[in-house]
Each structure stands twice: as C-alpha cells, then as structure tokens.
Amino acid sequence: QAVVDFERLGEHAAAFQGHDVGFCCLGTTRAKAGADGFVRVDRDYVAQAAELARAGGCKHFILQSSRGANAQSRFLYLRVKGEVENLVQAVGFDHCTILRPAVLLCRRQESRPMEWIAQQFLGAVARLFPTAYSVPVEVVARAMVACALQPGEGKVKVLENRAIHELGKA
C-alpha cells in the first residue's frame, strides 16, 4: 500500500508502476468537499490516477462510477461521473471496465443522517427488489475482482446495477 498526496499525484508516479490492473473507487461528496472539491476529487484525481496507471503499464482499469452517469447531465454529480468515465476511456487502456452501481449500502464511520435514512429505506426495498435501487459495497468489490480475473471481450465494458449484482454474487 502506498500513501499518496493527491494534490501532488505526479510526484508519486512510482506507486503506479508495474501493475496490470487498476481499481478506482475514489470519491467524495459535495457536502464534504464543496462543488469545486467534489470535481477535483471525483474527476480530476481519478483521471490523473488513470493516466499515471497507464503510463506505469496498467492494461485494465476498473472504475466505480454511478448509476445515471452522463457528461451532459444538468446535475453536477451525474455530470462529473460521466465526464470522468469519458476521460478514463480516453486514456487508452487495453480494457476499461466501468461499474455503475445504484445507492451503495455500507456502514460508515462518519455521520450522514440523510444517507442513513435512505439506506434504511433501500435496505428494506432490497428485500423485495434486490437489484433495483441499491447494492452492498461488498457485492461491488466482488464484481470488480471478477472483472479483473475475467476481463472479457472488448475495450470498454459498462456494468449497470443488475449486472454488478449478478457478477458480485457469482
């Protein structure tokens, strides 16, 4: 594990050398970082990390994005996620896998009251419609590993929430 300063990511290029597969789940919230900070973390840092990974020999980059990602969206969150998907694809990996999970179900150390309420509701809904509105982070992680072990055909593969569930439970 290498600890890097994302504000000086270029100085840490050695940490990105010699890896066949790159996994990226980096992100923050607008509430925590402000609009500019959110864009910097969720788009700029991710794109720069992808470029460093490719320069270091990475062949397959696996990016956790978001359901509804769209570079043309009116909503900042979805627009930034769409923009970073486009930037990562443009880096030129042999394989690029993009996962677009719905609401992530997880336990956090920090307090996010509205997210907690949403998770409680969606956790209950998930019993009736397990792949519709949410996905446990453990399932996303297993799906990411499965993608690394069997990248499949094609240069770019996009997995929506249902496919993440199927792959993460296989």
CATH top level is Alpha Beta
Categorize the overall geometry: globular
CATH topology type: Rossmann fold
Count of the separate structural domains:
1
Output the radius of gyration.
16 Å
Individual helix count:
5
Structural class: alpha/beta
Strand content: 15-25%
The CATH architecture comes to 3-Layer(aba) Sandwich
Give a count of the beta strands, DSSP E runs of length 2 or more: 6
What's the average pLDDT?
A: 90
Q: Reading side by side through the largest sheet, how are the strands ordered?
A: 1-2-3-6
Largest sheet: 4 strands, parallel
Strand/helix succession: EHEHEEHEHEH
CATH superfamily: NAD(P)-binding Rossmann-like Domain
Brief sketch in words of this structure:
By secondary structure, the chain is an alpha/beta fold.
Task: Please describe what this structure looks like.
- The protein is an alpha/beta fold and 170 residues long.
- The chain has one domain (16-169): NAD(P)-binding Rossmann-like Domain (Rossmann fold, 3-Layer(aba) Sandwich), CATH 3.40.50.720.
- It has 5 helices and 6 strands, in the order βαβαββαβαβα.
- The chain has helices at residues 30-55, 76-90, 113-128, 137-149, 161-169, and strands spanning 21-24, 60-64, 95-100, 103-105, 134-136, 156-160.
- The strands form 2 sheets. Strands 1-2-3-6 form a 4-stranded parallel sheet, sandwiched between helices. Strands 4-5 form a two-stranded parallel sheet.
- α1 (30-55) runs parallel beside α2 and α4 crosses α5.
- The protein is globular, with a radius of gyration of 16 Å.
- The chain starts with 20 loop residues before the first strand and ends with a helix.
- The model has no long low-confidence stretch (mean pLDDT 90).
